[in-house]
Amino acid sequence: MLLELGALGIVLTGGAFGLARRHRGRLYEEQRNRIAVIRQTHDQDLGLARHGVPQFAQHLVRVPDFLPAGVFARLRDDILKLQAAERSFVPAHKKGGTIAYEALIERAPSVVAYYQSAELMGFFSSVIAEDVSPTPVDDQSSLSVLVYDRPADHIGWHYDHDFYRGRHFTALLPIVNEGSADGGLSHAELLARLDGKDVAISTEPNTLVLFEGAVVRHKVTPLGTGERRIILSMTCCTDPRARLWQAIARRFKDTAYYGVRALWT
Ligand SMILES: O=C(O)CCC(=O)C(=O)O
Ligand SMILES: [Fe+2]
Hints:
Blueprint: H1 2-41, E1 60-63, H2 69-81, E2 86-90, E3 94-99, H3 101-107, H4 109-116, H5 118-128, E4 133-134, E5 143-148, E6 154-158, E7 168-178, E8 190-194, E9 197-201, E10 208-211, E11 218-220, E12 228-237, H6 244-258
Antiparallel strand pairs: 1-10, 2-3, 3-5, 3-6, 4-12, 5-12, 6-11, 7-10, 7-12, 8-9, 8-11
This protein binds 2-oxoglutaric acid and fe (ii) ion.
The site of 2-oxoglutaric acid has 10 residues, from strand 11 and strand 12.
């Protein structure tokens, strides 16, 4: 009897898991279609040619005044309209809110259009000196909004591990950064270890930071009281295909940002 109950349990759990995966598969198909429509209907000039090709020295580049003021203001407004950030808390490592790709596809098509734009990926490709494309729709970190808005929100030292066959890069575009640190910025400061030294990478609004996160170790220091820092985070890759073990490892990593549901996405 016990054995039969155990077997039934395994079958039911396996079935539920399979159904959840099938449901996700359909959802991703819909999201891919939605992205295709967004790509066709939004075609904004980002004015990136004026930056030339900045040096990707030490696997990191910082480009101040990245977008023309009008383009940045619209992007900022669209991101600020999104609320209800999902909070995450992994003791001692990461504390802050994250709005995942899925929610952005649903609710912020203009932000998705910006990430998917040929001009943006072309700019990243020229800096990196290899062709990159957006990472897939089932990777919730492909495009996300990181919200630091409670005292002590931070991220400890880490690499952005590469779960793809190709090289993987992270681009951060600060949308809001306000507080009582120098220049009216928040105390949540991005530090990168370059040549064995911790270097502060100033993240003023509209300053792009593009880096190879699997090579450059980095952290974000704790936010002060009453401060706010909102970052648009985008990832791209020279070959966005993943091997099975890479796909599984990425889902475990994502639980830090999106909770255990990341495991069956
Ligand atoms: O907020 C930042 O500046 C960096 C965030 C980061 O490193 C991450 O989410 O992996
Ligand atoms: Fe990171």
